[in-house]
């Protein structure tokens, strides 16, 4: 983690002035960790003081107690407000250093930061701070999860907190139709059908709102997809005429536009997509005539060509009855969940073979791969398990960090859902 610009010797506990009715920040010197300390309950969070801020050596940007003086505490707020330079953000240190501090604050605080004044709000909503976070390798990965037709929630694996997203304003057709979800940049895309046909709804993290976005050039479903930074690729699938296709499209979240890429070697649906070593891979799926495909294909962005890779699928697609391969990339290594054998596998690139390295959690049971989530989430693999036998309304989230050794799954979260059929979507956003 990048260290801050001040010294711990000046980190003294201070009491806010009785005359200062405004927001107050106290600089604490040291690193600015992405993860804030957990809060046991609402009453405790209201009483968080400087002793807690010293524990995480960063900026505790909540709306109650804010640390680093925006306004000198010895003078009333109404005397200084007219001359305050809000464009400087934190007035005492200027805009550039203010942003250097703020980009290291956890994303859970950004709603509070945006509430301080117009300049803070514009900084958050412009997306500038997320671009700087990416440039400085300050990235948080959240799991976006839905077990309701119109409700989505975000789960932070580090703090183990759940956050609600706004309700999707769509017609009933879109709400009840099967949907596929992809994250790209600071957007969450939901692709499905409404009364007018194929539709794409977009959640924008910057505005915390849903909008009806642009459709694909060739609308489809059952595609393989993956995202990298502000672009996402959608490969294959089944078009509106229910034909399996080999066409590929790229979506740019910055412009909101779609563009066609070169066609794959083989048409396929029910496939999976990943980014690895700077290239896009489509894995497995079902080809024409319901034939299971065990091969994969690699797309090189420099040559703009596809290369077929034999035996890249970790499981047999079973003629289209199985879910797309459960695959995930962590640190440019490819992992897979074999739902049939309940095994965890790793792909050896040089040998082009899969090795069994462990087992899946007991709760990762499924029906031909359906009903379980398996994805990369920063430096960890996340598994979302189906309903428990003793309580069919609970979904559990497991985590394993490959860099820490042999597979050992930890339960990091659970969610009680009202939809007992568990027709849920999940996806991971890193920004």
From TrEMBL:
Top-level taxon of the source organism: Eukaryota
Gene3D superfamilies membership: Kelch-type beta propeller (2.120.10.80)
InterPro entries, sorted: F-box/Kelch-repeat (IPR052439), Kelch-typ_b-propeller (IPR015915), Kelch_1 (IPR006652)
GO cellular component term of the entry, any: nucleus
Disordered as annotated region, ranges: 34-54
Biased composition (Basic and acidic residues): 41-54
Keywords, comma-separated and alphabetical: Kelch repeat, Repeat
UniProt-recorded name of the protein: F-box domain-containing protein
Organism: Lactuca saligna (Willowleaf lettuce)
Upper classification of the organism: Eukaryota, Viridiplantae, Streptophyta, Embryophyta, Tracheophyta
